[in-house]
Amino acid sequence: MSPEPARRDTRPVVLFSDRTDVDLEPAQRLLAAHGFDSLVAELPVSHDAEDPARLLSARARGAVGLVVGYARISSRILEALPELRVIATTSAGTEMVDVVATQARGIPVIPLRDAATEEVATHSLALMLAVERQLPRATDIVGRGLWTEALTVGAPTSPRRLSGLTLGLLGHGRIARRLTTMAAPLVREVIAHDPRNVGEGATAVSLEELLRRSDILSLHVPLTDGTRGIIGADALASLPTGAVLINCSRGELVDEAALLEALDSGRLRGAGLDVLHGEPPAPAAPLRHHPAVIRTPHVAYWSADSLLSYGLDPARAVIELLRT
Hints:
Layout: E1 13-16, H1 25-33, E2 37-40, E3 65-68, H2 75-79, E4 86-89, H3 99-105, E5 109-110, H4 117-132, H5 135-143, H6 148-152, E6 166-170, H7 174-183, E7 189-193, E8 203-204, H8 207-213, E9 216-219, H9 233-238, E10 243-247, H10 256-265, E11 268-273, H11 286-289, E12 293-295, H12 304-322
Helix pairs in contact: 1-12, 4-7
EC number: 1.1.1.95
Family: Belongs to the D-isomer specific 2-hydroxyacid dehydrogenase family.
Organism: Nesterenkonia xinjiangensis
């Protein structure tokens, strides 16, 4: 007589922290094919939740792997997961995880590496072009039944030729390197500052020189204690008058009050922001309505291809570590 198959609830569990905008079904099928059950929790995206660990079922508390979307993984949640061996994130950052607590337990945290490199680079370039060419303002004028004169007469600034501009990149990892390839034929020069390494196509400069020379500054660094608020009043004052700021990285890299002041004073001609401090921003948030700001709702990563990778790649990372 052949042995009975193992009960389904005896298989190791991989937990998804929350339901993101990613289709998790392909990742769950992949996990099942490798002998794992998967569960989806509804952990909060805020640190203010009273006791987020209470949202975990008894089965979820036995998870050996955790895939993190938007949820905040605090030390309290980690304490409720005593069997946890690995965490993978659906983003390039790890700021949503209490890494001090994971390091204390020897739990590796694996960020997503390359799922949306092309998408974020493309979105950064699109924001740069839209700000420089004043596309939202032009679209609004046509929608109001007006034409050329309404756009050009009395405009606070006129578009600049890209071929005369210097594009500065703060950080030169995968996304910034892809953006370098895309933008280099359009601009006069691409310069970059990265303490680790600056790749081909960009000239390596100090942070001070980057700020002093960048007609367009695009941010491509992770959010850490060292980079939080790195673009503050002093950094913005160092940029050339009439510079443009692009941020598809993390909203907390920028001091928003200082950015607002730089825009209102005319020191900056505009900004293209896919990320903000509070998402979604409050209805009365000044940057939400500022005429010199083009805002998109944290969608730089978005494409049919990337959405598939955002679920599958973290699942693959978890499987690889747990099976070694």
